[in-house]
Amino acid sequence: MKDTINITSLHDYLLSLLNLLLDYSPKLIAALLLFFVGGYAIRFINKVSRKLLLKREVEPTLVEFLCNVIFWGLRIVLIIAVISKLGIESSSFVAILGAAGLAVGLSLQGSLSNFAGGILIILFKPFKLGDTVLAQGVEGTVIDIQIFVTQLQTDNNQIIFIPNGSLSNNTIINFSRKATRRTDLLFTLSYDTALPTAKALLLEVLNQNPMVLKDPAPAVVVKELTETGIKIALRAWVKTPDYATTTSQILESCLLTFAEHNIRTQPYTLTESKTISS
Protein backbone atom coordinates (compact mmCIF):
# COMPACT_ATOMS: atom_id res chain seq x y z
CA MET A 1 0.00 0.00 0.00
CA LYS A 2 2.81 2.37 0.91
CA ASP A 3 4.63 1.57 -2.35
CA THR A 4 1.47 2.36 -4.29
CA ILE A 5 1.19 5.78 -2.59
CA ASN A 6 4.85 6.58 -3.36
CA ILE A 7 4.43 5.64 -7.03
CA THR A 8 1.29 7.77 -7.24
CA SER A 9 3.07 10.76 -5.65
CA LEU A 10 6.04 10.39 -7.97
CA HIS A 11 3.70 10.17 -10.94
CA ASP A 12 1.89 13.33 -9.86
CA TYR A 13 5.20 15.16 -9.35
CA LEU A 14 6.52 14.16 -12.76
CA LEU A 15 3.23 15.12 -14.34
CA SER A 16 3.28 18.57 -12.71
CA LEU A 17 6.92 19.03 -13.74
CA LEU A 18 6.07 18.09 -17.33
CA ASN A 19 3.15 20.53 -17.34
CA LEU A 20 5.41 23.23 -15.96
CA LEU A 21 7.98 22.57 -18.69
CA LEU A 22 5.29 22.60 -21.36
CA ASP A 23 3.92 25.89 -20.03
CA TYR A 24 7.35 27.47 -19.59
CA SER A 25 9.13 26.09 -22.67
CA PRO A 26 7.70 28.68 -25.13
CA LYS A 27 9.03 31.50 -22.92
CA LEU A 28 12.38 29.73 -22.53
CA ILE A 29 12.70 29.12 -26.28
CA ALA A 30 11.71 32.72 -27.04
CA ALA A 31 14.21 34.03 -24.48
CA LEU A 32 17.04 31.88 -25.89
CA LEU A 33 16.15 32.90 -29.43
CA LEU A 34 16.09 36.56 -28.41
CA PHE A 35 19.45 36.18 -26.66
CA PHE A 36 21.26 34.64 -29.64
CA VAL A 37 19.63 36.87 -32.27
CA GLY A 38 20.21 39.94 -30.09
CA GLY A 39 23.86 38.99 -29.54
CA TYR A 40 24.41 38.67 -33.27
CA ALA A 41 22.65 42.02 -33.89
CA ILE A 42 24.80 43.73 -31.26
CA ARG A 43 28.02 42.45 -32.84
CA PHE A 44 26.79 43.57 -36.27
CA ILE A 45 25.85 47.06 -35.01
CA ASN A 46 29.20 47.37 -33.22
CA LYS A 47 31.12 46.36 -36.34
CA VAL A 48 29.20 48.80 -38.57
CA SER A 49 29.62 51.62 -36.02
CA ARG A 50 33.38 51.05 -35.84
CA LYS A 51 33.71 51.17 -39.65
CA LEU A 52 31.65 54.37 -39.89
CA LEU A 53 33.67 56.11 -37.17
CA LEU A 54 36.98 55.08 -38.72
CA LYS A 55 35.75 56.19 -42.13
CA ARG A 56 35.03 59.64 -40.69
CA GLU A 57 38.60 59.71 -39.28
CA VAL A 58 37.49 59.88 -35.66
CA GLU A 59 40.29 59.60 -33.07
CA PRO A 60 41.08 55.85 -32.56
CA THR A 61 40.80 56.19 -28.77
CA LEU A 62 37.34 57.72 -29.12
CA VAL A 63 36.32 55.01 -31.60
CA GLU A 64 37.30 52.29 -29.14
CA PHE A 65 35.50 54.03 -26.28
CA LEU A 66 32.27 54.66 -28.22
CA CYS A 67 32.20 51.10 -29.53
CA ASN A 68 32.58 49.75 -25.99
CA VAL A 69 29.77 52.01 -24.75
CA ILE A 70 27.49 50.87 -27.59
CA PHE A 71 28.37 47.21 -27.03
CA TRP A 72 27.78 47.13 -23.27
CA GLY A 73 24.77 49.44 -23.44
CA LEU A 74 23.04 47.14 -25.92
CA ARG A 75 24.12 44.10 -23.89
CA ILE A 76 22.39 45.48 -20.79
CA VAL A 77 19.23 46.22 -22.78
CA LEU A 78 19.32 42.68 -24.21
CA ILE A 79 19.70 41.09 -20.78
CA ILE A 80 16.74 43.07 -19.44
CA ALA A 81 14.67 42.05 -22.48
CA VAL A 82 15.58 38.36 -22.01
CA ILE A 83 14.66 38.50 -18.32
CA SER A 84 11.32 40.08 -19.20
CA LYS A 85 10.73 37.37 -21.80
CA LEU A 86 11.17 34.72 -19.12
CA GLY A 87 8.34 36.31 -17.18
CA ILE A 88 10.53 37.83 -14.46
CA GLU A 89 9.60 41.35 -13.37
CA SER A 90 12.28 43.62 -14.85
CA SER A 91 11.37 46.84 -13.04
CA SER A 92 12.97 45.68 -9.79
CA PHE A 93 16.07 44.56 -11.71
CA VAL A 94 16.36 47.99 -13.34
CA ALA A 95 15.96 49.68 -9.94
CA ILE A 96 18.73 47.54 -8.43
CA LEU A 97 20.96 48.27 -11.41
CA GLY A 98 20.33 52.02 -11.07
CA ALA A 99 21.07 51.98 -7.34
CA ALA A 100 24.27 50.03 -7.93
CA GLY A 101 25.31 52.52 -10.62
CA LEU A 102 24.69 55.45 -8.26
CA ALA A 103 26.72 53.82 -5.48
CA VAL A 104 29.62 53.11 -7.83
CA GLY A 105 29.46 56.67 -9.20
CA LEU A 106 29.64 58.20 -5.70
CA SER A 107 32.57 55.99 -4.73
CA LEU A 108 34.50 56.80 -7.91
CA GLN A 109 34.12 60.58 -8.10
CA GLY A 110 37.83 61.14 -8.81
CA SER A 111 37.82 58.51 -11.54
CA LEU A 112 34.69 60.03 -13.06
CA SER A 113 36.50 63.40 -13.17
CA ASN A 114 39.35 61.74 -15.06
CA PHE A 115 36.80 60.01 -17.29
CA ALA A 116 35.14 63.32 -18.17
CA GLY A 117 38.57 64.89 -18.75
CA GLY A 118 39.48 62.05 -21.10
CA ILE A 119 36.29 62.60 -23.11
CA LEU A 120 37.07 66.33 -23.40
CA ILE A 121 40.64 65.65 -24.53
CA ILE A 122 39.49 63.13 -27.13
CA LEU A 123 36.72 65.40 -28.43
CA PHE A 124 38.58 68.74 -28.54
CA LYS A 125 42.02 67.25 -29.38
CA PRO A 126 44.45 69.73 -27.75
CA PHE A 127 47.12 67.20 -28.73
CA LYS A 128 47.44 63.89 -30.54
CA LEU A 129 49.75 60.89 -30.44
CA GLY A 130 53.34 61.88 -31.22
CA ASP A 131 52.95 65.54 -30.18
CA THR A 132 55.47 67.11 -27.81
CA VAL A 133 53.64 68.92 -25.02
CA LEU A 134 54.29 70.69 -21.74
CA ALA A 135 51.58 69.94 -19.17
CA GLN A 136 51.44 69.73 -15.38
CA GLY A 137 55.09 70.79 -15.29
CA VAL A 138 56.11 67.77 -17.39
CA GLU A 139 57.41 67.91 -20.96
CA GLY A 140 57.35 64.87 -23.20
CA THR A 141 55.95 63.12 -26.25
CA VAL A 142 52.37 61.82 -26.10
CA ILE A 143 52.51 58.04 -26.55
CA ASP A 144 49.02 57.03 -25.40
CA ILE A 145 45.69 58.77 -24.74
CA GLN A 146 43.42 56.65 -22.58
CA ILE A 147 40.04 57.43 -21.05
CA PHE A 148 41.44 58.01 -17.55
CA VAL A 149 45.12 58.91 -18.08
CA THR A 150 47.48 60.25 -20.74
CA GLN A 151 51.00 58.85 -21.06
CA LEU A 152 54.01 61.04 -21.89
CA GLN A 153 57.52 59.83 -22.69
CA THR A 154 60.28 62.23 -21.61
CA ASP A 155 63.61 62.75 -23.37
CA ASN A 156 65.35 60.51 -20.82
CA ASN A 157 62.87 57.69 -21.61
CA GLN A 158 60.67 58.02 -18.52
CA ILE A 159 56.95 57.28 -18.83
CA ILE A 160 54.74 59.85 -17.08
CA PHE A 161 51.07 59.11 -16.35
CA ILE A 162 48.96 62.26 -16.03
CA PRO A 163 45.30 61.99 -14.87
CA ASN A 164 43.01 63.40 -17.54
CA GLY A 165 40.92 65.32 -15.00
CA SER A 166 43.77 67.61 -13.96
CA LEU A 167 45.22 67.62 -17.48
CA SER A 168 42.03 68.92 -19.10
CA ASN A 169 41.62 71.67 -16.48
CA ASN A 170 45.10 73.17 -16.78
CA THR A 171 47.30 74.85 -19.36
CA ILE A 172 48.71 72.63 -22.11
CA ILE A 173 51.51 73.86 -24.39
CA ASN A 174 51.62 71.92 -27.64
CA PHE A 175 55.00 72.35 -29.35
CA SER A 176 54.03 70.16 -32.33
CA ARG A 177 50.75 71.73 -33.43
CA LYS A 178 52.38 74.10 -35.96
CA ALA A 179 54.76 73.09 -38.74
CA THR A 180 57.25 75.82 -37.82
CA ARG A 181 58.51 77.19 -34.55
CA ARG A 182 60.58 80.22 -33.56
CA THR A 183 63.68 79.83 -31.45
CA ASP A 184 64.30 82.86 -29.23
CA LEU A 185 67.76 83.23 -27.74
CA LEU A 186 68.73 86.10 -25.46
CA PHE A 187 72.30 87.26 -24.83
CA THR A 188 73.54 90.12 -22.64
CA LEU A 189 76.45 92.03 -24.20
CA SER A 190 78.65 94.51 -22.37
CA TYR A 191 78.22 98.22 -23.12
CA ASP A 192 81.66 98.49 -24.68
CA THR A 193 80.58 96.12 -27.48
CA ALA A 194 80.43 97.52 -31.01
CA LEU A 195 76.70 96.93 -31.37
CA PRO A 196 76.37 97.10 -35.21
CA THR A 197 79.26 94.67 -35.60
CA ALA A 198 77.87 92.26 -33.01
CA LYS A 199 74.41 92.33 -34.62
CA ALA A 200 75.89 91.69 -38.06
CA LEU A 201 77.94 88.75 -36.78
CA LEU A 202 74.95 87.18 -35.03
CA LEU A 203 72.73 87.67 -38.08
CA GLU A 204 75.39 85.97 -40.19
CA VAL A 205 75.32 83.01 -37.78
CA LEU A 206 71.56 82.67 -38.32
CA ASN A 207 71.77 83.05 -42.10
CA GLN A 208 74.54 80.47 -42.43
CA ASN A 209 72.57 77.78 -40.60
CA PRO A 210 70.82 75.65 -43.29
CA MET A 211 67.95 74.74 -40.96
CA VAL A 212 66.96 78.36 -40.32
CA LEU A 213 64.08 79.34 -42.63
CA LYS A 214 64.45 82.36 -44.90
CA ASP A 215 60.76 83.23 -44.62
CA PRO A 216 60.07 84.64 -42.10
CA ALA A 217 63.55 86.08 -42.13
CA PRO A 218 65.75 85.70 -39.04
CA ALA A 219 66.35 88.81 -36.97
CA VAL A 220 68.71 90.19 -34.33
CA VAL A 221 67.22 92.99 -32.23
CA VAL A 222 68.02 94.95 -29.10
CA LYS A 223 65.64 93.61 -26.48
CA GLU A 224 66.47 95.71 -23.42
CA LEU A 225 69.06 97.99 -21.83
CA THR A 226 69.92 96.91 -18.30
CA GLU A 227 72.44 97.84 -15.64
CA THR A 228 74.66 94.92 -16.58
CA GLY A 229 74.57 95.28 -20.37
CA ILE A 230 72.64 95.22 -23.63
CA LYS A 231 70.19 92.36 -24.12
CA ILE A 232 70.27 91.09 -27.70
CA ALA A 233 67.52 88.76 -28.95
CA LEU A 234 68.07 86.26 -31.76
CA ARG A 235 64.88 85.16 -33.50
CA ALA A 236 64.92 82.40 -36.09
CA TRP A 237 62.12 80.28 -37.53
CA VAL A 238 62.75 76.57 -38.03
CA LYS A 239 60.74 73.47 -38.81
CA THR A 240 59.28 72.08 -35.61
CA PRO A 241 61.13 68.70 -35.76
CA ASP A 242 64.43 70.60 -36.20
CA TYR A 243 63.92 72.92 -33.21
CA ALA A 244 66.21 71.25 -30.67
CA THR A 245 69.03 70.55 -33.14
CA THR A 246 68.92 74.04 -34.65
CA THR A 247 68.84 75.76 -31.26
CA SER A 248 71.89 73.81 -30.14
CA GLN A 249 73.75 74.63 -33.36
CA ILE A 250 72.96 78.35 -33.08
CA LEU A 251 74.12 78.48 -29.47
CA GLU A 252 77.40 76.78 -30.33
CA SER A 253 78.01 79.05 -33.32
CA CYS A 254 77.25 82.17 -31.25
CA LEU A 255 79.65 81.17 -28.50
CA LEU A 256 82.40 80.50 -31.04
CA THR A 257 81.72 83.87 -32.68
CA PHE A 258 81.87 85.67 -29.32
CA ALA A 259 85.19 84.00 -28.51
CA GLU A 260 86.66 84.73 -31.96
CA HIS A 261 85.79 88.47 -31.85
CA ASN A 262 86.38 88.98 -28.11
CA ILE A 263 82.76 89.92 -27.38
CA ARG A 264 81.99 89.82 -23.68
CA THR A 265 78.63 88.29 -22.73
CA GLN A 266 76.59 87.31 -19.73
CA PRO A 267 75.11 83.77 -19.55
CA TYR A 268 72.33 83.38 -22.10
CA THR A 269 68.74 82.50 -21.33
CA LEU A 270 66.05 80.91 -23.44
CA THR A 271 62.95 83.09 -23.46
CA GLU A 272 60.66 80.47 -24.96
CA SER A 273 61.22 77.68 -22.49
CA LYS A 274 63.58 76.64 -19.73
CA THR A 275 64.82 73.62 -21.66
CA ILE A 276 65.55 72.81 -25.28
CA SER A 277 62.60 70.62 -26.18
CA SER A 278 62.62 68.09 -28.94
How is this fold's topology laid out?
Blueprint lengths: L1 H54 L4 H26 L4 H18 L1 H16 L7 E4 L2 E8 L3 E5 L5 E5 H5 L3 E3 L5 E10 L5 H14 L10 E7 L4 E10 L3 H18 L4 E6 L8
Helix pairs in contact: 1-2, 6-7
Tell me the strand order in the biggest sheet.
Answer: 4-3-2-1-5
Q: Indicate the mean pLDDT.
A: 80
Question: What's the end-to-end separation, in Å?
Answer: 97 Å
Radius of gyration: 35 Å
The count of DSSP E runs of length 2 or more, i.e. the number of strands, is 9
Can you count the helices?
A: 7
Overall 3D shape: rod-shaped
Helix content: 40-55%
Largest sheet: 5 strands, antiparallel
Structural class given helices, strands, pairing? alpha+beta
The run of helices and strands is: HHHHEEEEHEEHEEHE
Low-pLDDT residue spans: 268-278
Strand content: 15-25%
Structure description:
- This protein is an alpha+beta fold and 278 residues long.
- 54% of the residues lie in helices and 21% in strands.
- The protein is built from seven helices and nine strands.
- It has helices at residues 2-55, 60-85, 90-107, 109-124, 164-168, 195-208, 243-260; strands at residues 132-135, 138-145, 149-153, 159-163, 172-174, 180-189, 219-225, 230-239, 265-270.
- A five-stranded antiparallel beta sheet has the order 4-3-2-1-5. Strands 7-8-6-9 form a four-stranded antiparallel beta sheet, covered by helices on one side.
- Helix 6 packs antiparallel against helix 7.
- The radius of gyration is 35 Å and the shape is rod-shaped.
- The termini are far apart.
